Amino acid sequence: LITPSDQHSGVKHWRYSLSNDEGKTWSSYSAWISNTYPYNITFSTSGKHKIKINLIDNTGNENTLESGIYIIERGDISIGAMYSKVYTPGESEIINAKISCKDCSEDTPAVVKVWLNGNLINEEEIKVSNEFIFRTNYLATGEYANVKVEITSLSDEDKLNNSLELRVPKKSMEYKETKERLVEFEGATVCSIERGQTQINSKEKLILNLRNDYEYYFAGQGIPAKIQVSYFNECDSIINWKCIPGSTYEDGKANAEFIHGATPVREKYRKGNKYEVSMSYEENDSYYLLPEMFATKYEGQIYDDVNDAPIGEEVINGGRKWYTDIRGNEGLYTFEIIGELTAVNLFSWRFEETYEIKETVNQQYRVRFTDPYLPFPNQESIIWKDYIEWFDTLDKDKPLYTFEIKGDKQK
User: Is pLDDT at 42 greater than 90 in this prediction?
Assistant: First the structure.
């Protein structure tokens, strides 16, 4: 209540300006007021307020006065939204709450309390302005975590909107195994709620497809097994409290297990009576792939590093395959591809694939073009060693057979 006065000539007119930040900034002056009746000035928001009076008396003298500080604490504090990712039991996860304070002063004091399954787990004193993001950790062990966040303040004029509760499931960690070539998973990734709305559980979907080009192989042939990945997450990221869909895939780890393999590379991967081969996830192609292999051209020896091949040997790229044993026997065999801790929900999976070796090295017809005078220029061949004596006794000046090539026909 302002009552302007002047003990000498009297007040001609006056005006006022307001500040809600201790006089750091001021509003524009009001219109001139010509009477000196008591005048009400109302502060509509919280803050540390001051009043500035500009007055002119009837003889033309001007004066400006500032009041002391009036501290007003009022406003409507509320929690408008919350979200959390699904959690791993026994590991810390974060709950996020959007706190707003309408008409509050800067740094309004408040207390935030967090309950987990009905038990108070955190209590913090905070300062709230227009909007504040509150984050805290919780650690749950059961199937679900019921997380409640509540904020209280002496300045809060509406206490009906200052708490929210979210029900968060644990990561499913589901495991599936199959002898087919397709596996599908689905699970929640992010739980969110807005005031006045029902809770939303955003989901991910993972489809895995075993791709193997052949069912039948000859001994020594490479198996080009790979796992194709199709993945989608309804809440790949969160921007401005909204879920953004995407396909960012947590690939975990994957291994292939074989019961036989080519020499000498198989010894690098031996694990007991099996060979365990790490597979890498190629994001651009969306495949789990076997390591790249290399073969010596004449001996058929397999390496996973071209530098491991004997010096002077011609080496060719064998592709991303696991090579069967060139001395293997006919029969049905199986291999497994095992994935662990993949996607947000830490899905694990195992494929079992059956294949058949239908031809052994003794059944295969092999052709090698060579100089009869120097059939093995580098070293003795393992595959052709039984023919060394035959080359030695060969009459190199008398061909066994003569043919000529005309166009695409041979005679």
Answer: no
CA 300 remoteness from chain centre: 42
Tokens of 94: 């974060």
Pair type for strands 216-218 and 347-359: parallel
> Cis omega before residue 264 (within 30°)?
yes
Measure the CA–CA gap between 101 and 203, rounded to whole angstroms: 32
| Residues 341, 171 contacting (CB under 8 angstroms) | no
What lies within 8 Å, CB to CB, of 19 at 6+ separation is 25, 26, 27, 49, 50, 52
H or E segment to which residue 251 belongs? none
Q: Report the SS3 class of residue 26.
A: coil
* % of the chain exceeding 90 in pLDDT: 59
Give the predicted TM-score (pTM) of the model: 0.73
Neighbouring residues of 40: CB distance < 8 A, sequence distance ≥ 6: 1, 2
Predicted confidence (pLDDT) per residue in 129-180, tens digit: 778 899 999 999 999 999 999 998 877 667 778 899 999 999 999 999 999 9
Largest Cα separation within the chain, whole Å, is: 143
Query: Rg of the Cα trace of the chain?
Result: 40
Residue that the structure tokens 């043919």 belong to = 403
Mean pLDDT, residues 229-248? 97
